[in-house]
Write a structure and sequence with these properties.
Layout: H1 3-13, H2 15-28, H3 36-60, H4 69-80, H5 85-88, H6 95-102, H7 107-116, H8 119-126, H9 129-146, H10 154-167, H11 169-181, H12 187-194, H13 212-223, H14 226-246, E1 256-262, H15 266-278, E2 282-284, E3 303-304, H16 310-315, H17 326-342, H18 344-348, E4 350-359, H19 377-397, E5 406-411, H20 419-430, H21 434-448, E6 453-458, E7 465-469, E8 479-480, E9 483-485, E10 495-498, E11 501-516, E12 519-529, E13 532-537, H22 544-554, E14 564-570, H23 573-581, H24 590-593, E15 598-603, E16 622-623, E17 646-650, E18 656-662, E19 668-673, E20 676-677
Parallel strand pairs: 1-2, 1-3, 1-4, 4-5, 8-16
Antiparallel strand pairs: 6-7, 6-18, 7-11, 9-10, 10-14, 11-12, 12-13, 14-15, 15-17, 18-19, 19-20
Helix pairs in contact: 2-3, 2-9, 3-8, 3-9, 6-7, 8-9, 9-10, 11-17, 14-15, 17-19
């Protein structure tokens, strides 16, 4: 059918409403019907809508693909100029400026609306006229309130926003489910598969902000040989296939795979899609959410570009606070369930995501603005509840024990002038000798399996002093507590990991500097008691209250506490050496950074929603440490078992003193001493550390 056919009926149904509302919005640009302090806001908003509408009309006429490059660039700049860092200070999308210009009563809400209207850009490029129209109608309804002789009631404006998201929950929920599991929605696949990738105009078909970064990546990949591109694609898709094989899941039962990628990498993604076709899988691709309905604040997902403005994204991470209450959450859950029911066949045969990440963006230290929206304590609890229920629902329709994933990462030009060298070094890291690492990691596991607890200590400024309790093995000849993780779901190769026993896991985890979900933490300290976070702090901000709030919102994801869901030892010292040689340690993604030292994940275990699926290491031993005291609660109450988050915190080798396996009788065996591997047979891992 294709994406145009999907929206054809709804577009036709809304045609008259669309024409009427656009005629009215065009008039606003010439009116002075609102109080003087609001005139610039509404005129600027109306002008933006008219600019986007011009794109929608071009899409309807089939003209977008044939625009001249200069026109593509000019349109792209105009649509995104207001949120670019150099213009953001005086933008109505900036909550500080909006409150200053529009007042405390309406500044926040109008800033929210101004930001929400940006979803129109993607609707226009995809030809979603109905979606475009309902946002226009939201804007007009609020504008009409300000046309009165006196200012509107603040509650009236908030109610308009609230009922918009309540009433259209079904529309947004169906988008979210369909775009993930239904290959008929092929907007992105068509761009990848049919474009002339030598002609940079194709980048502007997405409707995302195209910077020098995306253009440089596309041109760089065009210079690589066909063999190099195929090898990159093969690494990604073979890792995906092996992930099913090693976990004993039947890939032949699946029909679709969700491909997530950064714009600019189309030459590789075209090969990835072709490879998956050979495995019997059609690729689905969805857009990184723009509307607050779909944004999660957990980094880029779907098809995406590098951040246009990270401060803008940070300022708006709590936008749902304007309409989040218990009734809305239940309404959204109903809508999501209805959407999953509609696409339950497609969901059942969905295999999970294949993700390409990027790294190398300029490190970001957020500014906390008092004018930015914030969740109340009640809303934080609702967010936790909502995420838990959505996680359960997804697992019901796309069973965790039947799906898998793979993730791989590549640098982008913002990493520095040595981008080509770093890119090639990353390709090398992503294709390290699978068997060599498997064998060395097995030797480490053999020692760890003798441990009752593992003691991890930092050195120098690092204050880590942590004890991790290890799962008891009833039959050591056939069981293991640690997974030998090589290059399958988590590329690159290089870690052994376990789900710790919570009781007896205690002490302090400290990292002097770390980037988690694109946010920088300085002197992050987390104290564990019985495997759960008891205290936490950092030194990002001037006050302890600000530091704790920052961690609570962005690391704990509003939970009162989180368990240690994973303890791992990263073995990819080659990646560590690359980071030091090119001075990019602060730019590595978690995917690679977690392989460059021991790491500890807070949140769910690595086996979340698939704990009952037996998993084996290459030596044939079953990995029995798949549960902890919280995840096992799924057998009583699913809502108590999962947190729907998993964040790895890595101690780099140069901050690490020792990792020691301590047996029940008190005897010890060193894994790492003075930051070096000391297990016999792992000496090769120390070569890059020299």
């Amino acid at each position: 059918m294709g994406y145009k056919e999907i929206f054809k009926e709804s577009n036709e149904e809304v045609a008259e409403r669309y024409a009427l509302v656009m005629e009215r919005i065009a008039e606003i640009r010439l009116e002075n019907n609102v109080a003087e302090k609001y005139q610039e806001y509404f005129k600027k908003s109306a002008d933006f809508i008219c600019q986007v509408n011009a794109v929608l009309q071009q899409e309807s006429a089939g003209e977008l693909e044939n625009r001249e490059l200069a026109v593509c660039e000019e349109t792209n700049q105009k649509l995104y100029q207001d949120i670019l860092p150099e213009y953001y200070e005086k933008s109505f999308a900036n909550p500080s400026f909006a409150v200053e210009a529009l007042g405390e009563d309406f500044g926040q809400m109008l800033c929210f609306l101004y930001t929400e209207l940006r979803a129109m850009i993607s609707y226009a490029f995809e030809g979603r006229k109905m979606h475009f129209t309902i946002l226009c109608e939201l804007f007009m309804e609020i504008y009409n309130c300000f046309e009165a002789d006196s200012e509107p009631d603040k509650k009236e404006i908030k109610n308009i926003i609230y009922w918009f998201f309540h009433d259209y929950s079904e529309v947004f929920a169906e988008d979210k489910v369909r775009d993930m599991v239904d290959p008929e929605y092929d907007f992105f696949a068509q761009i990848v598969n049919t474009s002339d990738l030598e002609d940079m105009r194709y980048l502007y078909r997405y409707g995302e902000y195209i910077s020098d970064c995306e253009i440089t990546v596309a041109k760089f990949l065009n210079q690589l040989s066909e063999e190099e591109i195929q090898s990159m694609a093969d690494t990604m898709t073979e890792g995906y296939r092996i992930g099913f094989e090693t976990t004993g899941k039947d890939l032949s039962k699946k029909e679709t795979v969700c491909v997530e990628y950064p714009i600019g990498f189309e030459r590789v993604i075209r090969k990835v899609i072709a490879n998956f076709e050979k495995l019997g899988l059609k690729s689905t691709i969805y857009r990184d959410p723009v509307s607050s309905f779909g944004r999660t604040g957990g980094g880029k997902r779907g098809c995406y570009v590098k951040s246009v403005n990270k401060q803008f994204e940070f300022d708006h991470k709590a936008d749902r606070s304007f309409y989040l209450d218990k009734a809305y959450v239940e309404r959204r859950l109903e809508a999501m369930k209805a959407a999953f029911e509609k696409y339950k066949k497609e969901a059942k045969h969905h295999a999970g995501p294949a993700v390409m990440e990027i790294f190398g963006e300029v490190p970001f230290e957020p500014m906390i603005k008092p004018e930015a929206p914030k969740y109340s304590s009640e809303q934080n609890e609702l967010n936790v509840y909502q995420m838990s229920r959505l996680g359960q629902m997804t697992n019901t329709y796309i069973p965790g024990e039947e799906r898998s994933f793979t993730i791989i990462a590549y640098p982008i030009p913002t990493i520095g002038e040595k981008f080509p060298e770093i890119f090639k070094e990353t390709v090398k890291i992503n294709t390290l000798d699978y068997m060599a690492y498997r064998n060395m990691q097995q030797k480490i596991i053999d020692v760890l399996d003798t441990a009752d607890r593992v003691h991890i200590t930092g050195k120098g400024a690092n204050k880590t002093d942590l004890w991790v309790k290890i799962h008891l093995l009833a039959n050591p000849q056939e069981e293991t507590a640690f997974e030998n993780c090589v290059a399958d779901v988590n590329i690159p190769v290089g870690e052994v990991f376990t789900s710790p026993v919570l009781a007896g896991t205690e002490g302090k985890l400290h990292v002097t500097q770390v980037y988690l979900n694109e946010l920088k933490y300085l002197n992050l300290e987390i104290d564990f008691v019985d495997g759960k976070i008891a205290e936490y702090t950092c030194t990002n901000f001037a006050t302890e209250e600000e530091n704790k709030q920052f961690i609570h919102e962005n690391l704990l994801h509003h939970h009162k506490t989180l368990p240690m869901g994973e303890f791992a030892i990263g073995t990819n010292t080659t990646a560590y050496r690359m980071a030091r040689d090119y001075d990019i340690a602060d730019k590595l993604p978690i995917l690679i950074a977690e392989k460059t030292g021991p790491h500890f994940a807070v949140g769910d275990t690595c086996y979340s929603h698939a704990e009952d699926t037996k998993v084996y290491n290459p030596d044939g031993k079953e990995i029995v440490a798949r549960d902890n005291e919280i995840s096992i609660l799924r057998k009583e109450d699913m809502e108590k078992a999962y947190f729907n988050c998993h964040t790895d915190i890595t101690i780099p080798y140069d901050e690490l003193d020792s990792i020691v396996a301590v047996a029940k009788d008190g005897s010890t065996k060193d894994i790492i001493r003075n930051g070096k591997f000391v297990v016999s047979g792992t000496e090769e891992l120390n070569v890059p550390l020299m």
